[in-house]
Amino acid sequence: MLRASIATFDSEVIPEPIVTGVGDTGVEHGAEIVAFVDAVVLRDDDEYPEARAALEALIGREATDRSAMVAGNFSMMNRALDAVGAPVDRSQDALAAEMGLSIPSHLRSR
């Protein structure tokens, strides 16, 4: 989750997810991309090989590599935001719960 509450040049960053819950993402091969990104971000060593193979069969090795890089960068950015104490808006609670994450109280927006 990128922080919707982070102001940038007098505006808010409000990222729109490609998926809400489980179902059609509206993105070609979206389910496979979501499964792969989930395995990358959660460091799921059991799920990763199968998710990567499934995505690679659909979009090729180079595009799958780029997907891994985007997921890794996204994860790194969130870790950086956590490290500097960027607050998480309460509007992200449902997404955090869906991902099985709990938001520490010190990262709650005021």
Write a short abstract of this structure.
With about 110 residues, the chain is mainly alpha-helical. Helix content is about 50%, strand content about 5%. β1 and β2 form a beta hairpin.
Question: What do these coordinates show?
Answer:
Helices cover 48% and strands 4% of the residues. By secondary structure, it is mainly alpha-helical. It has a two-stranded antiparallel sheet. A hairpin with a 2-residue loop joins strand 1 and strand 2. Helix 1 runs antiparallel to helix 2 and helix 2 crosses helix 3. The longest helix is centred in the middle third of the chain and has 23 residues, at 61-83. It is elongated and about 45 Å long. It starts with 6 loop residues before the first strand and ends in a 12-residue tail after the last helix. The model is unreliable at 1-9 (pLDDT under 50).
How far apart are the termini?
Answer: 18 Å
Could you state the order of secondary-structure elements as H and E? EEHHHH
Helix tally equals 4
Tell me the helix content: 40-55%
Radius of gyration based on Cα positions: 15 Å
The total of beta strands comes to 2
Q: Largest beta sheet: what is the strand line-up?
A: 1-2
The description of the largest β-sheet is:
2 strands, antiparallel
Given helix and strand content, the structural type is: mainly alpha
**What percentage of the residues does DSSP assign to strands (E)?**
under 5%
Low-confidence stretches: 1-9
General form: elongated
Mean pLDDT: 76
